[in-house]
């Protein structure tokens, strides 16, 4: 169970890093979202992975910690807000510049216009 879980977290992290390093804004937003999912899964795993047990300290043979579950719930809400803000920023940049390339060679930031 732990091996499958760690492979899933590692695959999500690797895919998200690949997408973040792309040159367009939409894959970057998707990559940041995938990275937040990987971090959420990692945080959730810190509370111990047990099946059919109560998530309370001291109530079972292998007690689990409820704090990572609360952190993941908070991270989901923050991640949703961050994703919405990133998409709004990407759409605005696309509208003003006319391209969603991160390193657009035809745009000079110092001049504020396309060449």
The SSE string, one letter per element, is: HHHEE
Give the termini separation: 55 Å
Shape: elongated
> What is the CATH C level class, in words?
Mainly Alpha
Major β-sheet strand ordering:
1-2
Strand content: under 5%
Low-confidence regions: none
Named CATH topology: Helix Hairpins
Number of domains: 1
Oligomer: single chain
Protein name: Na+/H+ antiporter subunit C
Family: Belongs to the CPA3 antiporters (TC 2.A.63) subunit C family.
Transmembrane segments: 6-21, 28-51, 71-91
Pfam families: Oxidored_q2
How would you describe what is shown here?
- This protein is mainly alpha-helical and about 120 residues long.
- The chain has a single domain, classed as Helix Hairpins (Orthogonal Bundle), CATH 1.10.287.
- The chain contains 3 helices and 2 strands, in the order αααββ.
- It has a two-stranded antiparallel sheet.
- It is elongated, with a radius of gyration of 20 Å.
- The mean pLDDT is about 80.
- Belongs to the CPA3 antiporters (TC 2.A.63) subunit C family.
- Keywords: Cell membrane, Membrane, Transmembrane, Transmembrane helix.
């Amino acid at each position: 169970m732990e091996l499958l879980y760690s492979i899933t977290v590692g695959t999500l992290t690797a895919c998200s890093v690949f997408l973040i390093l792309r040159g367009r804004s939409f894959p970057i937003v998707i990559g940041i979202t995938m990275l937040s999912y990987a971090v959420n899964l990692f945080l959730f795993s810190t509370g111990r992975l047990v099946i059919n047990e109560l998530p309370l300290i001291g109530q079972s043979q292998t007690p689990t910690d409820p704090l990572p579950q609360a952190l993941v719930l908070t991270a989901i809400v923050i991640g949703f807000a961050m994703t919405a803000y990133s998409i709004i920023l990407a759409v605005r940049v696309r509208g003003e510049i006319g391209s969603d390339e991160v390193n657009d060679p035809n745009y000079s930031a110092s001049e504020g216009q396309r060449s």
